Amino acid sequence: MKAHPAFGDSLIAGILLIFDMGFGVAGIDRGVSFSAFLAVTLLMVGPVPFRRYHPLGTSYLILGGAFLQLFTHGGSDGIPVRMSDFALAIALYTLVAYTNRKTALIYSGWLLAGTLLWAIFQVGEIQAVFLVFFVFMIFGFSWAMGEFIGARRAYQREMEQRLLLLETERDQQAKIAVGEERSRIARELHDVVAHAVSVMIVHADGAAYTIRSQPEVAENAVRTIADTGRLALTEMRRLLGVLRSEDAETQWAPQPDARGVVELAENTRAAGVPVRLEINGDVDDLPVGVGLSIYRIVQEALTNIIKHAGAGTTALVRLARTPEELRLEVIDNGFGTPHDVVKVSGGNGLIGMRERAAVLGGEFEAGPNPGGGWRVRATFPLAA
């Protein structure tokens, strides 16, 4: 268990006080009054336990006690050296370590003046020269220790500030990462749910319309609804698995890629929208991010066609790969209203598609097709 710093200072003050009082009888025998002796003791030893909390005030109280000693302890035999005088070295060390050099230099000037006055009163004694040298050695050692401890304190403060800054930066990065992950999950869920629900609604309407007149068609539609729901549920479990606790068992499934566009086209045809698929080049070995973005953009574009294009709509999905880039185009001949619907309903389908392309350094464009209908274009760079 680490002791409190004030305990160590109190212990030092106690030792100085015991030795000072032990030698006090000799000082009083040399003509020093007890009241003057006690006042010097209280001024020089009393502030030591509080030096860390009030370095400047306690140091000058100690200095005041030293000057009081100069004018009250002098006699025919000169000024006696007391144990409490070591409090001056402690005060100098405290100012160097806990304040600044300017304050410590001013205090050193007062110490120099007091030491010279003390030496003048000791004139005639050869040992005074050695005592003055010894005093300056003690003060020099106190200054050096104060510089060393002060530098370590400054280094420690700087390290604490850096650690605090790093913790703050880490927390900010974590918040940004969480926000980005939430946006990604929101985009994925939107793509999965919107596409699946749109297909299920279309087939449900078809099943309700043909359940009496064409039971086989209605049965196929219901079967398609069940298959689409299972697929959507599997993808939702995969996405929501990242939000579960570490102890929970997460069901993992491969991320869809560009090869899944074939299945998307088939599902859209089953929903009643004829889709022609054109793939030029090999799309089986695309980077994972590009393949997933291609799949999601086509999924969202076909979902918009199912929801907004109207009866009699046909669609074209074209993928063209070159060594430098991959071009994606989804065109329909419907009413061309997804952009207006997004504005009204506040959906984020087109926004999500644009973000997917931008994250991978690609370009995205969506708008009315000059020949009628709606057109979605995206380009992804493939060069290293």
Write up what this structure looks like.
This is histidine kinase. This protein starts with a helix and ends with a strand. Helix content is 65%, strand content 9%. It contains twelve helices and five strands. It has a five-stranded mixed β-sheet with strand order 1-2-3-5-4, covered by helices on one side. α3 (34-45) runs antiparallel to α4 (55-72) and α5 packs parallel to α7 (127-210). The protein is rod-shaped, with a radius of gyration of 43 Å. Among the domains are: 5-125, no CATH class; 257-266 and 273-384, 2-Layer Sandwich (Heat Shock Protein 90), CATH 3.30.565.10. The model is unreliable at 247-251 and 338-347 (pLDDT under 50). The protein has 384 residues and is α+β, with helices and mostly antiparallel strands.
Give the SSE map.
Layout (H helix, E strand, L loop, with lengths): L4 H18 L1 H6 L4 H12 L9 H18 L13 H13 L2 H21 L5 H84 L4 H26 L20 H10 L4 E6 L7 H21 L6 E7 L3 E8 L5 H8 L3 H11 L3 E6 L5 E8 L3
Parallel strand pairs: 1-2
Antiparallel strand pairs: 2-3, 3-5, 4-5
